Design the sequence.
């Protein structure tokens, strides 16, 4: 008999569950029984290759190595324009602003090692405002408010050419499209993904198979349900409660393999750290169908890794592609210095803190470098590095 989920709690990640007893929560860190052994089957050693985790949309990087500015597979450039000023961190410096389906990038014209990569997932607010530039006077600027790793950063990109405001509008449109398509990229628990036994399809999503008789192994008796295997994700839902489900994009699968368990051979999906580092176990009935299911998921996962579908559907301008290609060529011709960091990097990051110059509730501490009492600085930032920033050319 199938075990109904009832009021089980969600959100337990890898390491949270005991390996000796099945927890009541779901999902949990699936661990095969210590005594369980894998039978000698054709799919015993079948597993997906580790997927290169996508960071471009989920991180902010300052002065990154130029190779990290290149578009990864599946990333599309929506628009780009030259002569845009980074008014927050380097007032008066021109650069190229590039809007892609995963991030907003800025690269200095003088030195490509001065750059910014701002993932759309970190952006809290975008706004176009009138501003004053050292190079052009009164003009328009794109204000970007972000949150990343517990800190708030603010970026201001000022238009120095006539076409830049159109690019700013494109940035707003792409960010809106990104926010409305999270199911392509984020692991979702107990969402409205299944209705009356049918999967709610995303645009451009295709169902390759529906597999019944699939048990998740998060409870003492497991939960009977079904798989939907698509070109974008793997979805499981309980037979007796459709809202008890999980949607796992291929983008968030670190590894998929078949392992032994006390229930017999089980399909184990290991998710990325950014999606909770879950290990989700499933048993397929009848057992001889497990190899077929594993082979299908492995093949689709490999296809997705070569050309990911991130779901951000925007029109790409030919002129933008040519401009971005020219900018990449210029960057590649520049000399790249590997390394960096330290106080120089801290000074660069400090220039973009959103609370700089505002009233703060930070602790007052003694600074031995100045010999004065000051507001406590963010971790890794020193007054020495901030002072040195004033004298940079």
Sequence:
């Amino acid at each position: 008999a199938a075990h109904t989920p009832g009021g089980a709690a969600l959100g337990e990640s890898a390491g949270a569950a005991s390996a000796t007893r099945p927890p009541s929560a779901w999902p949990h860190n699936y661990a095969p029984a210590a005594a369980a052994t894998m039978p000698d089957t054709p799919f015993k050693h079948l597993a997906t290759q580790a997927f290169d985790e996508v960071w471009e949309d989920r991180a902010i990087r300052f002065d990154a190595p130029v190779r990290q500015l290149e578009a990864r597979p599946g990333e599309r450039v929506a628009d780009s324009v030259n002569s845009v000023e980074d008014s927050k961190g380097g007032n008066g410096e021109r650069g190229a602003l590039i809007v892609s389906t995963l991030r907003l990038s800025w690269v200095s014209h003088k030195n490509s090692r001065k750059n910014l990569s701002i993932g759309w997932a970190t952006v809290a607010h975008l706004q176009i405002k009138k501003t004053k530039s050292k190079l052009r006077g009164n003009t328009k600027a794109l204000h970007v408010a972000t949150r990343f790793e517990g800190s708030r950063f603010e970026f201001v990109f000022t238009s120095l050419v006539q076409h830049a405001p159109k690019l700013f509008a494109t940035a707003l449109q792409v960010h809106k499209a990104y926010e409305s398509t999270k199911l392509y990229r984020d692991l979702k628990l107990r969402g409205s993904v299944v209705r009356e036994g049918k999967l709610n399809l995303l645009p451009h999503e295709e169902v390759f198979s529906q597999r019944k008789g699939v048990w998740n192994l998060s409870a003492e008796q497991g939960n009977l349900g079904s798989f939907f295997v698509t070109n974008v994700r793997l979805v499981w839902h309980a037979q007796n409660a459709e809202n008890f489900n999980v949607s796992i994009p291929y983008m968030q699968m670190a590894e998929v393999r078949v392992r032994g368990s006390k229930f017999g051979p089980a399909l184990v999906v290991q998710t990325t750290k950014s999606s909770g580092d879950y290990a989700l176990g499933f048993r397929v009935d009848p057992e001889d169908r497990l190899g077929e299911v594993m082979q299908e998921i492995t093949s689709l996962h490999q296809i997705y890794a070569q050309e990911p579908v991130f779901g951000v559907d925007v029109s790409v301008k030919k002129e933008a592609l040519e401009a971005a290609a020219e900018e990449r060529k210029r960057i590649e011709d520049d000399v790249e210095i590997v390394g960096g960091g330290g106080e120089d990097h801290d000074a660069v990051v400090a220039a973009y803190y959103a609370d700089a110059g505002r009233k703060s509730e930070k602790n007052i501490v003694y600074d031995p470098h100045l010999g004065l009492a000051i507001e406590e600085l963010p971790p890794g930032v020193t007054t020495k590095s901030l002072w040195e920033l004033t004298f940079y050319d």
